[in-house]
Amino acid sequence: EVGERLLAPFARGDRLEAQMPAILRDAFDFPAPRHLLRGSEGEGGLQVLELFHGPTAAFKDFGARFLAACFERLRDPREPTLNILVATSGDTGGAVAAAFHRRSGLAVTVLFPKGLVSPTQQRQLTCWGDNVRSFAVRGTFDDCQRMVKEAFVDAALRSRQQLSSANSINLGRLLPQAVYYAMTSLEWWRARHSKLSFIIPSGNLGNAVACIWARHMGLPIGDVLLAHNANQTVPDYLASGEWQPRSSRATLASAMDVGHPSNMERLRDLYPRIDSLRDAVTAVSIDDAAIEARVRADYARYGEIWCPHTAVGAEAWARLTPEARRSRNWCVVSTASPAKFPEIVEPLIGGKVPVPPSLAALLDRPSQFEEIGGTLDELRKALG
């Protein structure tokens, strides 16, 4: 119901309007539970929004499944196959592959940076076959993202193939992510008549933009704190006022390894002056040592197992002053299951991480991918 109310204006007068309820039922068929971090009450209390209960155990399942359901219903079966290009730093590609797998008339091309995603993430990116092809790019996520953008303006490539994107450049991927912010903030408001503030583990800023859009639509959302890993382009921008994109750095929170976040363009359009952006969001950068320490500490103290990305958010909350923690109702967005990062998490907690059945089923599938260089010419050759 919340999704229908929120997204209906964007489909008004379109073929999607009548089909929106069915699309949302198709896409959002898994929960997004919220719970209090048990034991944190004395520090102001931290709410945890779990967005990893979908098929690929990451928050990207929401947007990817919505987009796939839209494409399937909108596409004319007489048209040529539509090729969905997706660049991924870890989670997006797996969610898109799962959402589009075996959907008629649709193909997926996944580009991921070779050696810069976790083993579990790579298996999720490469286990599909059928209408999904995966390419390990000799480069960074920023290279993958650049290749996708260049493909869309390449006349020769577009003359041979029908192309679209499942990255957050596509509003159909981004808008549905506003739904879980709307749902969660409304539930909180109805129960307590106060606003919920969000701490969002951030890389390419799509999740952050979805939250800010929800707030602009009138949802009762308070502060927004962007929690970045050691790729600190955004925190530095807020501090200095100088936008200086840079090459990405590899970190434990690999899905957030973005040095040139494309969704900053949307934030800067929404907030043209740096002072207005500073009023809208704050940002912090968390390095690998702090990620490891937070996973250990919160497992020991609260019994909570974080993925490295959620640990960035938990550390951001821990760094707030006691007054800031108590004067706001904070909710950290838990973006992925820790089971996707056993090689990082298990040594830190000294035990095994339970694996969700849906994720275990994917890990049993054989892996298949090709390797290419980080140029548009290499992508052209791969696509044929």
Question: Distance N terminus to C terminus?
Answer: 43 Å
Give start-end ranges of low-pLDDT stretches. none
Characterize the biggest β-sheet.
Answer: 6 strands, mixed
Overall average pLDDT: 95
CATH topology of the largest domain: Rossmann fold
Number of separate strands: 11
Task: List SSEs in N-to-C order.
Answer: HHEEHEHEHEHHEHHEHEHHHEHHHEHHEH
CATH architectural grouping of the largest domain: 3-Layer(aba) Sandwich
Cross-sheet strand order for the largest sheet: 1-2-10-7-8-9
Describe the structure concisely.
The chain is α/β, with parallel strands linked by helices and 384 residues long. The chain is 47% helix and 16% strand. The strands form two sheets. Strands 1-2-10-7-8-9 form a six-stranded mixed β-sheet.
Q: Would you write up a description of this structure?
A:
- By secondary structure, the protein is α/β, with parallel strands linked by helices.
- It has 2 domains: 2-59 and 173-358, 3-Layer(aba) Sandwich (Rossmann fold), CATH 3.40.50; 61-169 and 360-383, Rossmann fold.
- 47% of the residues lie in helices and 16% in strands.
- It contains 19 helices and 11 strands.
- The strands form 2 sheets. A 6-stranded mixed beta sheet has the order 1-2-10-7-8-9. A 5-stranded parallel beta sheet has the order 6-3-4-5-11, sandwiched between helices.
- Strand 4 (106-113), helix 5 and strand 5 form a beta-alpha-beta unit.
- Helix 1 packs across helix 9 and helix 4 (91-100) packs parallel to helix 5.
- The longest helix is centred in the middle third of the chain and has 16 residues, at 177-192.
- The protein is globular, with a radius of gyration of 20 Å.
